[in-house]
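Q: Convert this sequence to structure tokens.
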Amino acid sequence: MKKLEFLAAAAVMILAASCSNKSENAEEAEHLVSVDSIVANAAAYEGDTIVIEGVVSHLCKHGGTKAFLLGSDDNTMIRCDATPEMGGYFPPETIHKALRVMGVVTESRITPEMVDQMEEQYKTYMANVAKEKGQAVADTVKVAASGCETERKAQGQVNIETYEAQIADYRARIAEREAKEGKPYLSSYYVVALDYEVIDDSAESAE
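A:
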């Protein structure tokens, strides 16, 4: 009799665990959003905790604190920022692997005041380059590609390379948005990553 009672109790525990796992999986599935959907209408998800899946196209060189997940093409991507909750960084081996990331969709704003500050800092930097290394070097730096190409893609500046062109683009887009929507700033969105897992470990690194 005791053996039967034990088996019955074990069966109940297994069933309960199975139901719990199904419930968790169902809940996760409900929050699964495509990268394309986030990029197309990020404001609708702002503040939401979501789950996204995508291949890591690029990791930030500064400790892997940022991972860029691809959507349906190379120019559709969302940035995921690492947090202490998920380990503080994305390991190098996650590059070109498919990840499932859970996190909060967060808005970042660029205001005219921020653009003015960026321009002043750039002018100071260029003046120092010219003073220390000569005007010829400064002229070369001026026309060189600025910053991370992947970051520019994520900000919608895929065809804009120089820092001056980026600043001009920010100003033009801010003016256009203010005229259309009455909002004198640009919005970009990223995911504050709370957890992640590799869901496709078979792809080989392209590096």
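The helical segments are 2-31, 35-40, 112-133, 135-143, 149-154, 163-181.
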